[in-house]
Specification:
The structure holds 2 protein chains of 2 kinds.
Chain A (H helix, E strand, L loop, with lengths): L7 H9 L3 H23 L2 H18 L9 H22 L19 H19 L3 H12 L4 H8 L3 H30 L2
Helix pairs in contact in A: 1-2, 2-3, 2-4, 2-6, 3-4, 4-7, 6-8, 7-8
Chain B lengths: L2 H9 L5 H13 L1 H18 L10 E5 L11 H21 L1 E6 L2 E6 L10 H36 L5 H93 L1
Antiparallel strand pairs in B: 1-3, 2-3
Helix pairs in contact in B: 4-5, 4-6
The chains are: A mainly alpha, B mainly alpha.
Chain lengths: 193, 255
């Protein structure tokens, strides 16, 4: 960490004391990670944006409930996970309002169309496979594999024991492997390669 | 304990030395366990092939040099840049901002580290530092050889050689100038990048907030349209109902 970088716990203390600038800094520091988490959870950008917004609204509203400021990170992910669950439920009822435009791929400068297609294809397969894994296993995979949280942090974020988290991760990875095999079989069936 | 839990701990390198030793023994004698481990590793590898998610905040900062160039006096400058990149990467880990190599260029990216065809920027920088290290070693060996040669000449001259002392003083000046240059390069580069990083974070944050506002507004508009549509449908249904009532009532009124 940079010498002049304020640790999370100090920022949290300042937010608790009513410092809005500290909250902005905290949000600035973590919104990208929460977006990542929500995006992988749902594979939808608008969903992820909504979760980021809801998460930080709740962080602001509930910061006084966080007793141990050193446990900010798992607490933040816990809120984000809950927002993902509730947003997932409400989204199922609002599918008609979702625009198809939001799912268009990003255009990256200096990439050839071939590169873009290949990259998008590879990423979309991984993300699609992730969506086929049961929710409680999927969130553990995201938190460990992509967010790089420690097992005890994931356990705190999800309110489960460490062994449960490890066990879910095992089954999640197994489910992922089965999905890959299933897709490969389908490809062979349709394309004969 | 459940072997699944153990496999996961092994897979993510979260075993202490004793546990690791016991588990590796078990692994070497259990084919089924090895097969399970291989499956999990394959799934992890597959998951790792998608590491660049966050679409915003990609900023180009400098071009990469293609191929390994021959050592030159400017190598120290490259070393300073590489060191700055390393500092940024360590700091970036905490700022949630990372330096990545993408499309033949270095870039700062928010969120996940982007992998470029399996070659991480950390590996690129590491390789460059190793090459730099080797170059400096060769240079040092050559300087040592020269000094030894001249020391030998000094002994032959009876230990009195003004030329050698001048030469040593020149070397010493050269080394301290190189060190100053390196330090200044590093500091300047580091400060520029840091400033750029902060600015980009501010822009990114503003952009995100604006995006949120736009999204909420769009959602509100869509909801409104849906409600209006609902009202229109309802009034059409009412009108239809009225027409139908009239249609039924007309013949009845004759009686």
């Amino acid at each position: 960490m940079f010498a002049n970088e304020t640790p999370d716990e100090n920022l949290v203390r300042q937010v608790k004391a009513g410092n809005e600038e500290a909250f902005a800094r905290l949000m600035n520091r973590w919104h990208g990670r929460i977006y990542n988490y929500a995006f992988r959870y749902s594979n939808r950008k608008v969903f992820a944006q909504e979760v980021v917004q809801q998460t930080f609204i709740q962080v602001y509203q509930k910061i006084d409930q966080l007793e141990d400021v050193r446990r900010f990170l798992p607490w933040l992910y816990r809120i984000a996970a809950n927002c993902c669950h509730s947003e997932g439920r409400s989204n199922r009822n609002r599918n008609a309002l979702v625009s198809v435009v939001e799912e268009l791929p990003e255009v990256i400068a200096d990439s050839t169309p071939g590169d873009l297609y290949e990259k998008a294809e590879r990423k979309s397969v991984v993300r699609a496979v992730l969506q086929e894994i049961p929710e409680n296993q999927r969130e553990v995979i995201i938190l460990k594999e992509y967010e790089g949280l420690k097992f005890r942090e994931i356990a705190a974020a999800l309110g489960e024991s460490e062994n449960t988290v490890k066990s879910r991760l095992y089954y999640g990875l197994e489910a992922m492997r089965k999905q890959i095999i299933k897709r490969k079989l389908k490809e062979e069936l349709y394309h004969g390669s | 304990m459940d072997h699944k839990v153990k496999l996961i701990e092994y897979l993510y390198g979260e075993m202490d030395r004793e546990e690791l030793k016991t588990f590796e023994q078990l692994l070497s004698s259990n084919e089924q366990l090895r097969a399970e481990l291989a499956s999990l590793q394959a799934a992890r590898k597959f998951a790792a092939s998608d590491h660049d998610v966050v679409p915003t905040g990609l900023v180009q900062i400098m071009p990469t040099k293609n191929g390994a160039s021959a050592p030159s006096p400017w190598r120290s400058k490259w070393m300073a840049i590489a060191a700055s990149l390393l500092v940024l990467m360590v700091a970036g880990k905490l700022l949630d901002v990372r330096v990545v190599a993408e499309e033949g260029q270095f870039a700062i990216q928010y969120g996940e580290v982007s992998m470029t065809d399996g070659k991480d920027v950390r590996v690129i920088v590491q390789e460059e530092l190793e090459r730099e290290h080797k170059y400096l070693e060769t240079k040092l060996a050559s300087l040592t050889q020269q000094i030894e040669k001249q020391l030998g000449a000094r002994v032959e001259n009876g230990g009195n050689d003004k030329g050698l002392e001048d030469q040593l003083a020149a070397y010493s000046n050269q080394i301290s100038a190189l060190k100053t240059d390196l330090r200044n390069d590093q500091l300047a580069r580091y400060n520029t990048l840091l400033e750029q990083l902060h600015q980009d974070q501010r822009d990114h944050s503003t952009e995100l907030m604006q995006g949120m506002v736009r999204y909420v507004e769009a959602q509100r508009q869509q909801d409104l349209e849906l409600i209006n549509q609902g009202f229109e449908n309802l009034s059409m249904a009412v009108q239809l109902g009225e027409n139908y009532t009239q249609f039924v009532n007309q013949p009845l009124q004759k009686f």
